[in-house]
Design goal:
The complex is a heterotrimer of chains A (about 450), B (about 350) and C (about 375). Chain B is an alpha/beta fold. Chain B has helices at about 50-55, 85-90, 100-105, 110-125, 130-140, 145-150, 160-170, 190-205, 220-225, 240-245, 250-260, 330-340; strands at about 5-20, 20-35, 40, 65-75, 75-80, 95-100, 180, 210-215, 225-230, 235-240, 305-310, 315. Helix content of chain B is about 30%, strand content about 20%. The relative contact order of chain B is 0.13. With about 375 residues, chain C is mainly α. Chain C starts with 6 loop residues before the first helix and ends in a 7-residue tail after the last helix. Chains A and B meet through helix 6, helix 7 and helix 11 of A and helix 5, helix 6, helix 7, helix 8 and helix 9 of B.
Chain lengths: ~450, ~350, ~375
């Protein structure tokens, strides 16, 4: 917010970062039975690294479930991190003692998404705003009240509002009060978790403008977490894009938005609906849902949905067909495509086309039809352009129809293997302070087995 | 375009009687939905857009809700004059409804297949097997992979986007002529939102139905709408085709709404003030207390009659489009404002 | 120090000198001081009573039950009355919500009278004494056959004995004034209802909220203990105690209070679990609040509507239970419980109908009033209701 988009954000970075996050992980164990045996873990945040400089706004964007909110609560140590370091002003927060932690709390505050649930309904807003003062030892009740009144005025409300209760305010007003509460301890860092997502656009704009004004007035560093890329673009100096617990791209907002390097960033940006009806239907559509963070895909976590997934050595696919072959492979691996479902599909499709109510299954579906049905279900052409690839695909489909899905899956895995699933990509620098974690950029397609480096190059 | 619209809402008024006074949620709203087109009703929360859409099939709770006036003509029949029983034929039959939160729209303890089958058999004399086949077909058409296998799954086994697809399948169960979708993508991520919007477009073509989409998101409007109705405080401010409204926005409220959109390179300008009290709306144009272009006449009488802006179908409820005013004044002042950079930066959303 | 600054200056949050505040002595607020003072005075009183063993100056000779009742009243004052007094805005709001329910307002008035009379009355009224001459006097304005009372205190007209103002509600078979019995019965009912409920609320809330907030082992152990507790047949246990030690109101209250908090603890736990998901808990945590602070400032106040509703509905249950046990002769023979009075009169319904009826009617209305009150409180205390 401090720098206008056209200025290089590097200009803001005078000296040391205020917040330094290194390899932060937060896993939630999945337990079973009375003894709470761990049977797996949800990797909500899985090794993220970034820096936030004094006075800048650092955005974290991603879809729901990508771990951005967990990242916020973990870096504030509202939840104990599983691994990694959080350095605030040079001191390690994750190893802080009780007293140190309390001092850290004074300097790092949070704003929440839901303006309704972020206030205790049984406390007047004055009490809520002044509560942190009380917690940190200010005993003078009248002084606390005066500070709360002063702050409410500064965020655009009236001093008389101190005695009113949260339910008497609108969502936008409550978010102003939330800002007042976050400011009351005069912090250096504010973590804002979806602060405007619950508000109408007209109110959003006001809250964002207020945040910007306060940030300039008090020289705050802000970590701004949102799923809304437009809002992030509006307020952030730098932005990190998260996918399934990892940062896939980080860089200066305007440049990153203008020329996204990671395929996921590209897809995300193109799916923002713009108020221009002539742009409709231009988005890159991502297939499928976000995979579960309890069992993230191997290699690059985005490879299961990536439209630009790297093709296997020795084959030449049309990129869209290659994506669909990979979708088929994933389904086969999960055992969701087999002889039965292929026959069902063929029967359903023949019913749909021929209008016959009696399923073709009774009369027996010819294997050819079942194979074709699978192709249609995955939008695959009748023959791939690459003959050798086509041969492998037909063989695999033949195996599926013969009821041997396991061998089909093994065949496809062996022949159509992509570096995206084999190796984790490493962060590749695009420019100063701008990096993306993708095989298309890191050149590691040739040099195997390199572990990813921290998200940002210093 | 000259033929009879499928749905014609005329001067609809829906009030809610509460202890603290009468809330005029919808106060004289008119719009048409023609066959095969998508109409978006757009407005902020509290604009009455949801109440307007729910009044069509009288889904609002009555009491305290009450439709005090107007008519809703669907395919030649005034739905407001029908008995509850006759209306039930339309709900879920010829008019399907998709709600914002897919979580709440599905029964958590029934399989999705059963819910679609029930929807089919409620309005159609279909055998169990026939209904089941149709349900699988519907699941397939809304893009649920491996529909036959997922027929017996429970809602919690689906992701948010997949659940919304199931809800759409339920709404499509009886081949509706009109699909009313109330914020169908608000609870979803952008990437999933794009999938659902595309699905709605495809299905509309496939089923040849009309869609009435309620949304607060002008981006969604641009993506899917043929025509747009902009609502504010229970009144229609502007209506026209999507190109007319978004490329040549004419009502000061539509302009302000577009100006609040973030992510256009720092040009964001908040709209000051707050929605008027729906129990005691301002006289004259409902928007005049917040309107940067308001003149004395704006505060007098009732909401200004519709004037045309540019093309004949593009109607605007604003005195600037009446005789004796020059609408270009709005545009000139707006251009001057945006040159000042971030104008009214922090308006204070009052109360 | 920061507090020396001019008032206009110290109202600004940027000027707070945190290092100075951090080193400041962590004193107590006025309310905390008052509460601790009251508790100390109470402890001193109990200690003196134990030490002296006889009547005390000013305090008389309170029984253990009286001490418990005083403690209950003390807790009620500090945790219900004072917060309401401190926050007139919210109190007015609750009152506006509450008074929508006319039946509940009448109930509240009735219960206030019963409470006041039951608490104060017994100290001024003499204990009912056996009076063979005044047996079975009819209530004023009514009459019975002249052979029902031993000697009719009022006029005898046409062989009918008329009631007098001397015994407005008549007397029972022992010649006890029904009005006095009623007042002493109120004391018993209030003691049973309020003390046992106070025990249930305090223990249940403490266990429920800590189980929710601390989770893990604390949660597991305390909730399994609650499971165990809920299997204890309180009624039979109490009968056993009566056979072993004889009937005693004090024991009855302790048994019911200490064995019945399981339900409240569960209710509070689930409510507190929901509350602890709320972002304001996160906000307090992020401001540096300790678990104890969050428990006291946020969790307990926000589960209070559940607790208060549950409590107002527990009170009538306990009053009925005491009356029932006394009716069966399992109560405290030294008290004048309504249940006991009703039991005494059950053989005389044909002649002296009022002996069972009068306390019966009061029991009925008291229980009903608490139920109305509970319902109305649940509605009024809902923080989501609009002002």
């Amino acid at each position: 917010m401090t720098g206008r988009p056209d200025e290089p954000p590097a200009a803001d970075r005078s000296g040391e970062p205020l917040l330094r996050v290194r390899g932060l992980k937060k896993h939630y164990p999945i337990t079973e039975g009375v003894l709470r045996r761990e049977v797996g873990r949800v990797r909500a945040v899985d090794g993220i690294s970034f820096d936030v400089y004094p006075g800048e706004t650092f955005g974290i964007v991603g879809e729901s479930g990508c771990g951005k909110s967990t990242a916020a609560t973990t870096l504030l140590r509202l939840e104990e991190p599983t691994d990694g370091e959080v350095l605030f002003d040079g001191a390690d927060v994750s190893a802080a003692s009780k007293a140190e932690l309390k001092r850290f709390r004074r300097r790092a505050q949070m704003i929440f998404q839901d303006p309704t649930s972020s206030f205790d309904p049984r406390m007047s807003v004055g009490e809520s705003v002044a509560e942190p003062l009380r917690i940190h030892g200010m005993r003078d009740r009248d002084r606390r009240r005066r500070i709360a009144q002063d702050l409410l005025e500064r965020v655009g409300l009236s001093a008389d509002d101190v005695d009113r209760y949260p339910h008497e305010f609108s969502g936008g007003q409550k978010q102003r009060i939330g800002l007042a509460r976050a400011l009351v301890l005069n912090p250096d860092l504010i973590v804002a978790d979806e602060p405007v997502s619950a508000l109408d656009v007209s109110i959003q704009a006001e809250i964002l403008a207020l945040m910007r004004r306060l940030q300039e007035e008090f020289d705050l560093a802000v970590v701004f977490i949102s799923h809304n890329l437009s809002v992030v673009r509006e307020v952030c100096d730098r932005v990190a894009v998260m996918y399934l617990g990892e940062i896939v791209e980080v860089g200066p907002t305007e440049r990153l938005f203008a020329d996204p390097q990671h395929p996921y960033t590209r897809a995300l940006l193109s799916s923002i609906p713009t108020p221009d009806p002539r742009e409709r239907g231009r988005g890159i559509e991502l297939t499928g849902d976000v995979p579960s963070p309890s069992d993230p895909p191997s290699g690059c976590r985005f490879h299961t949905r990536c439209p630009e997934i790297v093709q296997p050595d020795g084959y030449e696919f049309e990129q869209v067909h290659w994506r669909r072959v990979m979708d088929l492979r994933a389904k086969l691996d999960r055992g969701e495509v087999g002889r039965e479902s292929a026959l069902d599909l063929a029967a359903a499709q023949s019913t749909a086309t021929a209008g016959a109510t009696d399923g073709a299954r009774a009369t027996g579906t010819p294997p050819d039809e079942a194979r074709a049905a699978i192709r249609r279900a995955f939008d695959l052409p009748e023959a791939l352009t690459d003959e050798r690839a086509e041969a492998v695909l037909s063989e695999a489909l033949g195996l599926v129809v013969d009821g041997d899905s396991d061998r089909a899956a093994a065949l496809l895995a062996k022949e159509f293997s992509t570096p995206c699933e084999r190796r984790r990509p490493r962060a590749a620098a695009v420019d100063d302070g701008w990096s993306a974690t993708c095989h298309l950029l890191d050149g590691s397609r040739r040099s195997e087995g390199v572990e990813p480096l921290p998200g940002r190059e210093d | 375009m000259g033929d009879e619209p499928l749905l014609s809402v005329r001067d609809l008024r829906t009030y809610f009687r509460t202890d603290a006074g009468t809330i005029r949620a919808v106060d004289g709203v008119s719009f048409d939905v023609r066959r095969g087109e998508t109409v978006c009703v757009v407005g902020e929360s509290g604009s009455g857009k949801t109440v307007a859409s729910e009044s069509i099939t009288r889904l609002i709770p009555m009491p305290p809700g009450e439709i005090v006036g107007g008519e809703v003509v669907f395919d030649g029949v005034d739905l407001l004059s029908l008995s509850d029983r006759e209306l039930r034929e339309y709900r879920g039959g010829r008019i399907g409804h998709v709600f914002q939160n897919p979580q709440g729209a599905l029964h958590p303890m029934h399989t999705v297949g059963r819910q679609i089958v029930e929807a089919i058999r409620l309005h159609r004399d279909a055998g169990k097997r026939e209904a089941r086949e149709r349900a699988i077909d519907l699941l397939d058409r809304v893009g649920i992979p491996d529909a036959a296998a997922r027929f017996d799954d429970y809602p919690h086994e689906f992701s948010g986007g997949m659940k919304q697809r199931v809800v759409i399948a339920v709404a499509l169960a009886c081949d509706p002529d009109l699909l009313i979708a109330d914020e169908p993508t608000t609870a979803l991520d952008v990437t999933i939102q794009a999938q659902i919007l595309r699905l709605l477009c495809d299905l509309q073509e496939e089923f040849g139905m009309s869609v009435l989409l309620i949304t607060h998101d002008l981006g969604v409007v641009a993506e899917i709408a043929d025509r747009v109705v902009v609502m504010y405080a229970g009144k229609v401010m502007e209506r026209g085709t999507v190109y007319e409204v978004l490329e040549n926005p004419s009502h000061p409220y539509t302009l302000a709404l577009l100006d609040c959109l973030p992510g256009r390179g720092g040009a964001m300008r908040p709209l000051g003030g707050a929605l008027p009290d729906p129990r005691d709306p301002p006289s004259g144009c409902r928007f005049h207390p917040r309107c940067p272009h308001a003149v004395d006449e704006c505060g007098a009488g009732d909401q200004p009659a519709m004037g045309t802006a540019g093309s004949p179908g593009h109607e605007v409820s604003c005195v600037y489009y009446h005789d004796g005013y020059d609408e270009s004044a709005i545009r000139e002042r707006r251009a001057a404002d945006s040159n000042e950079g971030v104008g009214r930066a922090d308006g204070g959303d009052g109360r | 120090m920061a507090t020396d600054a001019k008032p206009s200056d110290d109202a600004s949050f940027e000027r707070v000198d945190w290092d100075a505040l951090e080193s400041e002595f962590g004193g107590l607020s006025r309310r905390q001081t008052a509460f601790l003072g009251a508790m100390a005075a109470f402890a001193l009183g109990v200690a003196a009573d134990v030490a002296v063993g006889g009547p005390l100056p000013l305090l008389g000779d309170p029984a253990p039950l009286d001490w418990l009742f005083r403690l209950t009243l003390l807790l009620g004052t500090f945790y219900v009355v004072l917060p309401l007094y401190d926050d007139p805005r919210m109190t007015r709001h609750y009152w506006r919500q509450f008074k929508r329910n006319t039946a509940a307002v009448i109930s509240l008035g009735y219960l206030a009278v019963v409470f006041a009379v039951g608490t104060v009355g017994p100290t001024f009224l003499p204990r009912p004494e056996l009076d063979l001459l005044a047996r079975r006097q009819p209530p004023v304005f009514t009459s019975v056959a002249a052979d029902v009372p031993t000697t009719c205190a009022g006029e005898v007209v046409n062989g009918m004995c008329h009631g007098t103002w001397q015994y407005p509600l008549g007397t029972n078979a022992q010649g006890h004034d029904m009005l006095h019995l009623l007042v002493f019965g109120m004391e018993v009912s209030m003691q049973v209802g309020l003390i046992a409920t106070a025990i249930i609320v305090v223990v249940g809330t403490a266990v429920g909220t800590s189980a929710a907030l601390f989770g893990g082992l604390v949660d597991e152990v305390s909730m399994r203990f609650v499971d165990l507790l809920l299997t204890v047949p309180t009624f039979f246990l109490f009968i056993l105690i009566v056979y072993l030690y004889g009937g005693s109101l004090f024991l009855m209250i302790l048994v019911f209070g200490l064995l019945s908090w399981g339900g409240v603890a569960r209710l509070v736990r689930s409510e507190a679990l929901q509350r602890s998901e709320e972002e304001y808990i996160r906000a307090a945590e992020n401001a540096g609040a300790s678990k104890a602070w969050i428990l006291r400032r946020h969790v307990i106040p926000n589960v209070s509507n559940t607790v208060i509703t549950a409590a107002t509905l527990t009170i009538p249950f306990l009053i009925l239970a005491e009356a029932g046990l006394s009716f069966l002769g399992l109560g405290d023979p030294t008290t004048f419980s309504w249940g006991q009075t009703i039991a005494d009169g059950r053989g005389e319904l044909a002649g002296a109908w009022w002996i069972s009826t009068v306390p019966g009617v009061f029991l009925f209305f008291t229980v009903l009033a608490f139920n109305f009150l509970g319902d109305a409180l649940r509605d009024a205390l809902d923080p989501r209701s609009e002002v």
